[in-house]
Design a protein that fits this description.
The chain has 14 helices and 2 strands, in the order ββαααααααααααααα. By secondary structure, the protein is mainly α. The protein has a domain of 109 residues. The longest helix has 35 residues. The two termini are 19 Å apart.
Length: 453
């Protein structure tokens, strides 16, 4: 429907109608249930936390009904697809819709394709691990990534701010590129290569371009879009970040350029040729340079951004920024042979790093973004309490993993680490239970206050 708005008859004789003007801002367009989809994403995050509790419980007390490796595969795949990819999907659609683009119904089908593949992987991996059924659902997830990347780039390249568009371009490119990992893994298994290095490097390729590509550039795009709207910066034509354009564009360009060679950081454990080590060092330096420009961006705009953020989001995004900085430093330190051997030789170090990025950085940026756009509202006490409890659980989990890693590197066994990690998992799960319950309460109250027709 198109609304026709008549302007007041200023300068026209009485009874003579004024000019009829088309109000483009009030042209209705098909809307997708983005708020509902955010709720679904939060439910999925809660499910991820339940799986985390089960993993920690099984590690301490045992749980014969569940295979540990199967449960671990279900936990990781559902965290990637059910939580992060779903949340990024909704967040990117939100900024596209708010930028004035017409959202196609195709995205509705893509959302449900992603949910079917996510829950399919959740169930099939828990029951049988890597097997024909779980591989089918994993393949559906790859189909979703290709389909979404193509549709979103087609719809968003002409309406999004320049630097946001570049960050999204990197995110979508690395989302597609990460699918090389499962292909190489399938090749290794089908040809029975039996090469341990090839097998793990295929897994690391997938993890690298998911974590450092799709996840990282996705949340960076959401943050920069927020800055363009709330900070009041625009390019000519209102499409960018004129006040911070140079810094933000340099940051995105350096980080994007470093991502492919940074995969060499994941190969250092194999004792690779010298050129791979040199490439890894160059990539680490590029990432540090990108972090320097991001820091300058924060320092230059801290007052404006601080004034635009709710207090809770200031804390959440502050922790996320710290996690991102620690991530860059750890990746740089891994190029040192002695430290690299320590990192790759201890499972607790790898787990700590993966949780730092997924929970401390990516998840906190996503929850903060949804809060700034009122897609997750902190008004019900249950939601704000749940958010605080969850963040506390994330901090406790990282502190315990850090301490466990340091002790393990020092050849000291911490017998009580499993209990502390189980406690941290319970705290995170409790926080997400409160958060999702509060969102349900808020939705019921909101719907109950809607006028009936």
């Amino acid at each position: 429907m198109i609304y026709i708005i008549k302007k007041p008859n200023i300068g026209h004789p009485a009874g003579v109608p004024g000019p009829v003007v088309l109000d483009m801002h009030n042209i209705s367009r098909p809307t997708l249930p983005l708020r509902w989809w955010v709720f679904c994403a939060c439910i999925n995050l809660f499910i991820v936390s339940i799986l985390g509790v089960l993993l920690r419980y099984k590690g301490i007390f045992g749980l014969p009904a569940l295979d540990y490796n199967y449960l671990l595969h279900a936990h990781s795949h559902f965290a990637f697809s059910g939580w992060v990819t779903t949340a990024l999907f909704v967040g990117l659609l939100y900024i596209l819709d708010d930028s004035g683009a017409r959202l196609s119904r195709i995205y509705r089908y893509q959302f449900w394709l992603n949910q079917v593949s996510s829950f399919g992987m959740l169930v099939s991996f828990m029951l049988q691990g890597y097997a024909p059924v779980s591989i089918v659902f994993s393949s559906l997830s790859v189909v979703f990534s290709y389909w979404f990347a193509w549709c979103y780039w087609r719809d968003g390249r002409s309406v999004l701010p320049t630097v946001v568009r570049r960050a999204i371009g990197f995110a979508l490119f690395y989302l597609v590129l990460s699918s090389l990992g499962p292909y190489l893994l399938a090749y290794s298994m089908s040809h029975r290569l039996g090469d341990r290095a090839f097998y793990y490097n295929a897994i690391y390729l997938y993890l690298h371009f998911q974590y450092n590509g799709w996840f990282t550039f996705g949340v960076i795009a959401l943050f920069l879009w927020w800055a363009s709207r709330e900070g009041g910066w625009r390019e000519a034509g209102g499409r960018g970040l004129a006040g911070i354009g140079s810094l933000s564009k340099t940051f995105v360009a350096l980080l994007g350029l470093a991502c492919i060679p940074a995969y060499c950081l994941s190969l250092l454990w194999t004792g690779p040729p010298q050129w791979i080590r040199i490439t890894a060092v160059i990539a680490a330096l590029l990432q540090l340079a990108a972090g320097f420009f991001l820091l300058r961006l924060f320092v230059r705009n801290r007052r404006k951004w601080s004034a635009s953020l709710p207090p809770a989001v200031k804390i959440i995004w502050g922790l996320a920024a710290a996690a991102f900085g620690i991530k860059l430093v750890l990746q740089t330190l891994s190029v040192m042979p002695a430290l690299g051997r320590l990192a790759f030789g201890h499972r607790s170090v790898i787990i700590a790093y993966l949780h730092l990025v997924l929970l401390g950085f990516v998840t906190l940026v996503l929850l903060g973004f949804f809060t700034t756009r009122n897609l997750v509202t902190l008004h019900p006490r249950a939601v704000s309490t749940g958010m605080a409890v969850f963040v506390s659980g994330v901090l406790l989990n990282e502190l315990v993993l850090l301490l466990q890693s340091l002790l393990q590197i020092s050849a000291v066994v911490w017998a009580g680490a499993g209990y502390w990690l189980f406690g941290a998992a319970v705290v995170m799960c409790t926080g997400l239970l409160l958060l999702t319950a509060g969102l349900v309460q808020h939705a019921l109250v909101r719907d109950g206050n809607q006028p009936t027709h």
